[in-house]
Amino acid sequence: MATSSDIRKGLCIRYSNDIYKIIEFLHVKPGKGPAFVRTKLKSVTTGKVIDNTFSAGHKIEDVRVETHKFQFLYNEGEFYHFMNNEDYSQIRLLKEALDTPELMKEGEVVTVIINTEDNMPLSVEMPPHVVLEVTATEPGVKGNTATNATKPAVVETGAEVNVPLFINEGDKIRIDTDKGQYQERVKE
């Protein structure tokens, strides 16, 4: 058993007959009244995100998990196929178990969180950022740079990301997987 002070991003807990992964949290200590922790929980079975507030010292049931490195092979409809880098065994997961499947390209190495009680995969954690090639975007118009103007661009995985005007087709860009936002252009 853990308490609300042990809450951190990525922690898997058992809550209302389901297993949830904490994707956001904020410790709040108001001037008046007791402290509490405001959280955003994502169900590892359905992918549904809920908001919940735990009072300070509240007991939570954490789920013991292991992490393993897996390589993304391909997706087939709602299923995504991965291979364990150590023993080459393969697993398939539903799209709901993935945080940002639209930013994952074939060959990407991800961390799969596995429940130690029944060896079932719970969720997939992407690396902090990915480098993808821009496949389609409108050309930037000269003189449109008074402010930090952006334009939509489609990357090689099919995801759409807002990028600065100087980005062109064929450029490789680094994308923050947490927020799905452009970080910088990558030189080869």
From TrEMBL:
Keyword Chaperone (UniProt): no
Biological process terms in GO annotation: peptide biosynthetic process
Pathway this chain belongs to: Protein biosynthesis; polypeptide chain elongation
Keyword flag Cytoplasm: yes
UniProt xrefs under InterPro entries: Elong-fact-P_C, NA-bd_OB-fold, Rib_uL2_dom2, Transl_elong_fac_P/YeiP, Transl_elong_KOW-like, Transl_elong_P/YeiP_cen, Transl_elong_P/YeiP_CS, Transl_elongation_fac_P
Every Elongation factor P C-terminal domain range: 130-185
Keywords, sorted A to Z: Cytoplasm, Elongation factor, Protein biosynthesis
GO MF annotation: an example: translation elongation factor activity
Annotated localization: Cytoplasm
Domain spans labelled Translation elongation factor P/YeiP central: 67-122
GO annotation, cellular component aspect: cytosol
PROSITE patterns: EFP
SUPFAM superfamilies to which the protein is assigned, alphabetical: Nucleic acid-binding proteins, Translation proteins SH3-like domain
The organism's place on the tree of life at top rank: Bacteria
One Pfam family matching this protein: Elong-fact-P_C
HAMAP family: EF_P (MF_00141)
Family note: Belongs to the elongation factor P family.
Protein role: Involved in peptide bond synthesis. Stimulates efficient translation and peptide-bond synthesis on native or reconstituted 70S ribosomes in vitro. Probably functions indirectly by altering the affinity of the ribosome for aminoacyl-tRNA, thus increasing their reactivity as acceptors for peptidyl transferase.
Entry protein name: Elongation factor P
Protein species of origin: Cochleicola gelatinilyticus
